[in-house]
Amino acid sequence: MSTPLPERAGRHCQAALNTLHSTHYFSPDLGRELAAVGIDDVTAAYFAVRSAAMGPVGAGVVTATFSNFRHELVARHVPAVWEKASPSVVLAARARVVDTTLRRLLGDEAVASPEVAEAAELALRAAEACVRTARPLYAAHAELPVPEAPHLALWHAATLLREHRGDGHLAVLLDAGLDPVEALVSHTATGKGMTPKAVLGTRGWTRDDWDAAAARLRERGLLDGEGGLTSAGAALRADIEAETDRLDRAPYEHLGAAGVERLTELGRTLAAAVVAAGAYPAGTFGRS
């Protein structure tokens, strides 16, 4: 009889792996590699590398699947970005970015370590139980081949698990009646994730958009006058994460409690290493 998973075990495992996955978005290698293929705008580069697995999609698809970006910002770069570089060219550039970024942050010795190979094997095994239904970003990435190098295979599996959880999370936010800006405001109010300054600097929303969303949340009794969550707001965010956990449980149940525990341990060690190596700019996460 299999051992039941501890509460939030899958969430904690995916969070550690996502820290490793997201390094390439903040890497100086991203700008260099994408500029080399004709994409010299950092926002266009982000939209390109994350959506390329879906093919040369339009702005509507990117807005729908990414969810928390202002559509006008997306449309400024998509689909024009595909005239500069095809999705296959972008995917190849992204692979080079991931390789150089992880080697710089972790070191060649760690990249070639048995622990990275073990983490890749465990993460890929978990991803076997991901499902494509109603999960477009996951489904697109699931069509891509698994890289041979263990550190790239680990990154690929982390991407699958990230997008699988993310796709489910969007469905939960929709059911909770939170629009994209309200979701961002209420999430930053938890003190987790990106800061309001970082969000406003990257998502295309204005301060007026932010303030209007905060006002709507206050009207619903979810946000207090100082911008913090009320007890009802905190309960809603907790319910959202719990429901996201429920929709995302299959990969971690498939891996099993011992496998999830080991993968989380390995993932946290790698995540701590990349953070210590300066993978993320100061002030990107937290309440500031």
From TrEMBL:
<dbReference type="InterPro" id="IPR054058">
    <property type="entry name" value="HTH_67"/>
</dbReference>
<dbReference type="Pfam" id="PF21863">
    <property type="entry name" value="HTH_67"/>
</dbReference>
<protein>
    <recommendedName>
        <fullName>SalK</fullName>
    </recommendedName>
</protein>
